[in-house]
Amino acid sequence: xxxxxxxxxxxxxxxxxSAMRSMLALWAFLLAASLWSAAPYLEIYFIDVExxxxxxxVTPAGESMLVDAGWPGFQGRDAARIQAAARLAGxxxxxxxxxxxxxxxxxxxxxxxxxxxxxxxFVDHGENTETGKxxxxxxxxxxxxxxxxxxxTVKPGDRIPLRGAEVLxxxxxxxxxxAPPHGAGAPNPSCEGVPAKADDPTxxxxxxxxxxxxxxxxxxxxxxxxxxxxxxLVCPINRIGTVDVFLVNHHGMNLSNSPPLVHGIAARVAIxxxxxxxxxxxxxxxxxxxSPGLEDLWQLHLALAADPQDNASPERIANLEAECQGHxxxxxxxxxxxxxxxxxxxxxxKAYPPRSx
Length: 357
Ligand SMILES: [Zn+2]
Hints:
It is a single chain. The chain is an alpha/beta fold. The protein has one domain (40-352): 4-Layer Sandwich (Metallo-beta-lactamase, Chain A), CATH 3.60.15.10. The protein is built from eight helices and 18 strands. The protein has helices spanning 2-37, 77-89, 104-107, 110-114, 133-146, 227-234, 259-265, 282-289, and strands at 42-46, 55-58, 64-67, 93-98, 118-124, 150-153, 159-160, 166-172, 175-176, 209-214, 217-221, 245-247, 269-272, 296-301, 317-319, 329-333, 339-343, 349-352. The strands form two sheets. Strands 6-5-4-3-2-1-16-17-18 form a nine-stranded mixed beta sheet, with helices on one face. Strands 7, 8, 9, 10, 11, 12, 13, 14 and 15 form a nine-stranded mixed beta sheet that branches. Strand 10 and strand 11 form a beta hairpin.
């Protein structure tokens, strides 16, 4: 009896402990599941839109920002390629669509894209600064798109409120950030003797450019910003600092990519969103190669006008033929600053360890 009494006295206590253990196990499972669903990586898809721009960023918080929408036409080619990347990234809508400037290879694909993907917020520098028939057609197309989401107009120094990464606007509508971000602002020795060019009155010089920071990882995208604005931004002091990855300006054209910018930011990796016959100027490719600390150059296309030795190694080129299948490059970054790049044509990935402190 005593034994039975003893057991009956112990059973409720045992049940309580058992229940607590089950609760703890459930809690651990739910925590693991939530961590699993929010992978601790930042992803950037460099989508091939044949010498335009479409760059999809997905943060560890699960939010997305698409930088530009490629070209219109070609039976919806660019919208389909962006949609394919969004599917791979597991996103069903674009949280922020940044329209860097009003040119056909950036804003032209916006209406075809909206047939497939919804956008929560459009981000831009304000109204189109160009006039004329084709500029007005692009403005009208963008106005129609704007009716389908919210709008945020940004200026230098603003942060695009993408959760999970910091996106600092450096350039917008021809204006540039006044105060260098933390860690930047050193004199730039590469400015010495580099002359300005004739002023660029186009939308290129009004491009929205940003610095994305995720932990110790830094990514620079200045869209099609041109030479004189670059010089203003990095001379005589470098208001960008150094970066891990540089999306080469303006598809690698030599109207942009001044030595003070390319060498001042000292990127570990440069990525070119060129087409087979657009961008990828041989002199820009050579300048990038001479950049201090450069580890690799990657390209969305083999630049046909450049010599083979000026182009990146074939394994770091997403598309080798002019009539291509639209292969992409994907970058995955960790908060440690480590990152890796995958070429969808070869399926191969190259890893880059964190930069030494
Ligand atoms: Zn462009």
